[in-house]
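About this split. The held-out portion is used to measure sequence recovery: a designer receives only the structure tokens and must propose an amino acid at every position. Recovery is the fraction of positions where the proposal matches the reference. Here is one held-out target exactly as it appears in the evaluation file.
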């Protein structure tokens, strides 16, 4: 397999040492940066011992690694599906909404537990949304305007995926208020998320309609695959929390982005240090 190493401060000597752990035959700088920050190590040997050694060494050097099949192209895939909160964007929207109510610590604690898989998502969502009861709905626009930022590399990743012919799906346990606006902003093809109930300009503390939980996320990926005539093996799915594992499990390539340990352990690729556009270096 090819071993891809990438990180902002990955000097040649460090890369050679890491490549030697996998007995790679040769090393080639890849990407378009003036200073190489990504390297392809050809004919690397993947084993449990190699992975364990690379895990420790790359973590220490703040370098991401991935074993990939040679000659794989981005255009081999037909769908890029992404989680929203803490994946495509840097924030957890519900935590920031709660901050407008003075309740961010309480909500963030529940969010973190759910992302680690310690609380079932439906329960965690209900508990968090209930705390927003009575909040003026204008808080949603304030969060979007003042706090919502795209993750590093998001626009470059999406531009490359769209140029390669992939359809794009944003599927979130968050809220349509944000996914609808991001869809327009980034030219995404599909979105699916929860809808906050609003009455007389105030949040009611409830979600209207079906809950977008882990199973619904997976079913959404499969539904969009059917609509575009793609197999799940032709999908790239990106996420960071336990609620993303089901949809990542049906993907041809699953990518954990700045993810919880339970997610990193089950993903094909983990990007812990580079931006979302780091996935582009995985392809020829």
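Reference sequence for scoring:
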């Amino acid at each position: 397999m090819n071993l891809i190493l990438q990180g902002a401060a990955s000097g040649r000597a460090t890369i050679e040492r890491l490549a030697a752990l996998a007995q790679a035959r040769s090393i080639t700088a890849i990407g378009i940066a003036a200073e190489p920050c990504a390297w392809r190590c050809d004919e690397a040997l993947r084993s449990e011992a190699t992975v364990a050694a690379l895990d420790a060494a790359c973590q220490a050097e703040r370098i991401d690694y991935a074993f990939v099949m040679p000659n794989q192209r981005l255009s081999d895939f037909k769908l890029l599906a992404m989680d929203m909160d803490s994946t495509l964007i840097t924030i957890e929207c519900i935590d920031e909404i709660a901050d407008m109510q003075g309740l961010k610590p309480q909500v963030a604690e529940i969010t973190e537990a759910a992302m680690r898989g310690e609380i079932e998502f439906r329960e965690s969502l209900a508990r968090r949304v209930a705390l927003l009861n009575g909040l003026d709905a204008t808080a949603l626009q304030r969060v979007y305007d003042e706090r919502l930022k795209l993750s590093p590399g998001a626009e470059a990743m999406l531009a490359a995926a769209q140029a390669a012919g992939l359809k794009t799906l944003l599927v979130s346990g968050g809220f349509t208020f944000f996914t609808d606006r991001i869809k327009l902003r980034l030219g995404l093809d599909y979105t699916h998320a929860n809808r906050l109930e609003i009455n007389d300009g105030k949040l009611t503390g409830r979600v209207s309609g079906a809950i977008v939980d882990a199973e619904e996320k997976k079913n959404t990926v499969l539904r969009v695959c059917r609509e575009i005539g793609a197999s799940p093996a032709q999908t790239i799915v990106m996420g960071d929390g336990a609620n993303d594992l089901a949809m990542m499990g049906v993907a041809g390539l699953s990518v954990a982005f700045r993810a919880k340990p339970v997610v990193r352990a089950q993903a094909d690729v983990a990007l812990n240090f580079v931006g979302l556009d780091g996935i582009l270096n995985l392809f020829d």
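Annotator remark: The chain has twelve helices and eleven strands.
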